[in-house]
Amino acid sequence: MAFLDIGNLSAFYGKKQVLFDVNLTVKRGQICTLLGANGAGKTTLMQSILGLVKKTGQIHLNAKDVSHLPSYLIARMGVAFVPDTRGTFMDLSVLENLQLGAYNLKNKKEVARNLEQIYHYFPFLTKRLNQQAGTLSGGEQQMLAISRCLLMNPQLIILDEPSLGLAPLIVRDIFQIMTKICKEKEITILLAEQNAAIALQTADYVYLIETGKIILSGTSQMFKDNKSIQRAYLGVA
Amino acid sequence: MDRFLEYFFLGLSTGAIYASLALAIVILTKPMRHPNVAQGQMAMFSTYIAWVLINAGLPYWFAFLATLVISFFIGMIIERIIFRPLEQASIPNQFILLIGLFLFLRGTAGWIFGYDTRAFPAAFPSNVPFLTSHYISANQALILGIVTLLLISTGLFFKFTKLGLALRAIAQNPLSSTLVGINISAMLMLSWGISAAIGAISGMLIAPTIFLDPPMMDGVFIYAISGSILGGITSPVGVVVGGIMIGLINAILINYLNLINGELDTTATLFIMIAIILFKPTGLFTKKITIRV
Amino acid sequence: MNKRLILQLILLIILILAPQFLLSSYHLFRLTLVAAYAIVVLGLNLLMGYNGQFSLGHSSFFAIGAYLTAIMIPHLGPYYLLAIPCSAVISLLVGLIIGIPAIRFHGIYLAIVTLTLAVATPQIIKFLEPWTSGAMGINLDKPSAPNFLPLNPDQWIYFLTILITIFLFYLARNLIESRVGRAIIAIHDNPIAASTLGVNISAYKIMVFGVSVMYASIAGSLAALILQFVAPDVLTFELSIYFVIGVIVGGVRSLWGPIYGAFYIVFLPNIANAISKGAPEVISGLILILLLIFLPEGIHGGLRKIYVYLQQKRYA
Predict the structure, then answer these.
(1) Which domains are assigned to chain C?
(2) Chains in contact with A via at least 3 Cβ–Cβ pairs below 8 Å
(3) Which candidate from C97, C112, C245 shows the least CB-CB separation from B229?
(4) Chain B residue closest to C276 (CA)?
(5) pLDDT for B80-132, tens place per residue?
(6) Do C285 and B97 touch (CB under 8 A)?
(7) Contact A92, B171 (CB under 8 A)
(8) DSSP per residue over chain C, as a string?
(9) Interface with B, mutate which of C132, C282, C297 (most B CBs under 10 A)
(10) Which one of B26, B99, B250, B254 makes the best mutation probe of the C interface by having the most chain C beta carbons within 10 Å?
(11) Residues C158-193: tens digit of each pLDDT
(12) Residue B42 has pLDDT above 60, yes or no
């Protein structure tokens, strides 16, 4: 059952068209990767889902049409987005950053429980709760961003280049934790990556995007097996 | 010494009023990234509303509180109708919109109420001293009390409530705030309401002294803004301390010591402003003001 | 000489000569005032529309020009016109002292500092009573035309004003279309890109500010001669706001805008005052708000849109 269903999506920056009639579906609980070079349109595609750019086309979330909803309502429906800049509230404390993730949760007990879980996965947070979030390292801010996402009780997490600027070991840790949590809670993940290796390793399904168009899609196994695809598009000799 | 203390408390209480308007301004400066130049006019208009209520027979404190509530709603309505279409517009365009609002409020007040000055009552008659003090009147003490209460409650609100956290968040990072589901437009509306209410307080507190007419808040606005520059235009603590300092400077340097001709108070403020911008532009309490690239 | 240039010259000559002989004294007076105000609105438009900065203090420079002219003229005899450039230079100095610290720091500070200057100006004028006659103001005599020109004083002052206005507009146009002008506009549109291209942002901003200050001063000098009177209580920050209104209503970033804006400034208060004393401000405020929401480019922009629309209909 498709959780995220995008049909005929075209997106624009001002008058310039950057996405051309994109179709994409992600099943519930799946991890789906968008592969493509810089400027291919990955970020724009993700921003479109959240209504952050001018677009035409249909976007359905759990069979509900969200194409015309304002961004904050889409977020409240359970779509958590981590932009490539991580979106940290720099001058607020780590705890306040987390509390903002839980902003829409009414049930205080649920929030407390979620926080406990987060501390279990990312223990370093407990030591830094009162620290200014901007003083955290890149990797820590990434984990903070993911924590904020998880606190939203999301159904869909969208990550834009989560590995950007991070050391390989940290990247591996983050991806492991994420995969684990999401499989446990049946959260759908859409992630955009330039790092083909880690993306193919983690994902179930892959979409390859180039200059605003989807040129190839298939299971990650298919991508791993097909050497000519790898050579042509992924820069592997 | 006697006279000094008299002027000291005068400066302190007047400065507290400047500080309260500065507080109203800074609450909106942070999310909007520029000060609301129409804040003084909004406060003036609120004071006229209070005047109407008092003249209609309402007791002072009823009128005071009713004005706060009415101003809160007017602030929200102004955001919803006038400001929201330009929420995404550039700062210069928003600035001009606010100048339009400035003129509209000023002209409307003049149209409805005329340009004659009116008396506005204070909570206590002016010659009643505070307890047995020779230096500070009951009204001045009340002003200090109200403003202190205002500061504490505003501080607590922003620091410890969920809404306060949301308001701080949208000022810092509107995109991330949207992404956690905060409705920025609604939060801005709330901020406008709060600002308007606090501005109303400053208007009602200063009106007894300078009398009510449409240009009433011009001077207060200049002092509040210069206090903000002195203290740091994006720091709530800074603008408050700055406002009080301007009040004290005015009272002591100008009136008590007669160092500067009393008729030149704005001129003196101008020089202070330029000196601050030259030597410590971010103000005494702010470390830096980031300009987003 | 191409046809367009000849046409422009003919229009200019008509502009210079016709009103003096066709209009009554009163209407000529109003038109002269419009021309003078067009100068200050043009200067402010250079600053706001093309360069993207804000000044709420142009009433001060206007006032300096007006007062210095009023004070100097009795001492200058037949060389009274020298008062205009002299005042402009002094205004420039004041403007730079006030403006340079603010411009180097952050845009909004210029607005605040200039606003404070505007509020302080009447105070300073009244304080300098020995020279300025304080609140009572100074009366000026209307200068007569030089002997070889058969013009009465009203016509002479119009002639003088319109020549200066045309000259200053011409200068402004050359500035905008030059390399300097492009740098100025680039700073408004994209300051970061401009600075990476080697444009010294502060220097240009200060330069544009200086030019707009001088324009305001010249306009003030002329206004003093036209109105034959200067007084502190009409030279308040509210006048500054009217200048800003003139820029926006007329149309930012256009050379025609200041002309529409000047007409607005001179004629609206008269019309609106008939309704009520607060009416001009209510109307101006509403117009500003509505313009920004629906038509940010002002009258000039609106006219251009109508023109484009009509053209499209014609060729459809």
Answers:
(1) 27-142+149-315 (1.10.3470)
(2) B
(3) C112
(4) B111
(5) 999 998 888 888 889 999 999 999 999 999 999 999 999 998 888 777 777 77
(6) no
(7) no
(8) --HHHHHHHHHHHHHHHHHHHHS-HHHHHHHHHHHHHHHHHHHHHIIIIIT----S-HHHHHHHHHHHHHHHHHHHGGGGGGHHHHHHHHHHHHHHHHHHHHHHH-HHHHHHHHHHHHHHHHHHHHHTHHHH-GGG-EE-PPPPPPTTS---HHHHHHHHHHHHHHHHHHHHHHHHHSHHHHHHHHHHH-HHHHHHTT--HHHHHHHHHHHHHHHHHHHHHHHHHHHSEE-GGGSSHHHHHHHHHHHHHH-TT-SSHHHHHHHHHHHHHHHHHTT-TTHHHHHHHHHHHHHHHH-TTHHHHHHHHHHHHHHHHHH-
(9) C282
(10) B99
(11) 888 999 999 999 999 988 888 888 887 877 777 777
(12) yes
Give the count of Cβ contacts less than 8 A between chain A and B: 60
Here the CATH number for the domain that contains residue B77 is 1.10.3470
Domain-located, residue B248? yes
Q: Is pLDDT of B231 > 60? A: yes
Question: Domains in chain B: how many in total?
Answer: 1
Helix axes A138-151, A108-121, angle to 10 degrees: 150
Domain extent, residue B59, equals 2-279
Q: Is the pLDDT of residue C36 over 90?
A: yes
At residue C316, the pLDDT reads 63
* Lowest pLDDT segment from A40-44, A221-225, B257-261, C100-104: B257-261
CB nearest B180 (choices: A70, A73, A75): A75
Q: For residue B162, tell me if it sits in a domain.
A: yes
H helix intervals, chain B: 2-32, 39-55, 60-78, 91-113, 138-160, 162-172, 174-179, 184-210, 217-231, 236-249, 265-279
> Given CB atoms, is C251 within the 8 Å cutoff of chain B?
no
C277, pLDDT greater than 90: no
**In terms of pLDDT, which residue wins out, B64 or B4?**
B64
The two tokens of residue B33 are 């990234």
ipTM of the complex: 0.89
Q: Is residue B285 assigned to a domain?
A: no
Look at residue A218 and tell me whether its pLDDT is greater than 50. yes
Q: Which of the residue ranges A25-29, B1-5, B15-19, C107-111 has the most confident prediction, judged by mean pLDDT?
A: B15-19
Contacts of B242 in chain C (CB under 8 A): none
pTM for the predicted model, two decimal places: 0.89
Distance to chain B for A6, nearest Cα, Å: 20
Greatest extent of chain B over all pairs of C-alpha atoms, in Å:
59
pLDDT score for B259: 66
**Which residues lie closer than 8 Å to B233 by C-beta, 6 or more apart?**
B26, B29, B35, B239, B283, B286, B289
Listed by number, the residues of chain C in 140-169 with a beta carbon closer than 8 Å to a beta carbon of chain B are none
Asked whether residue B43 is domain-assigned, the answer is: yes
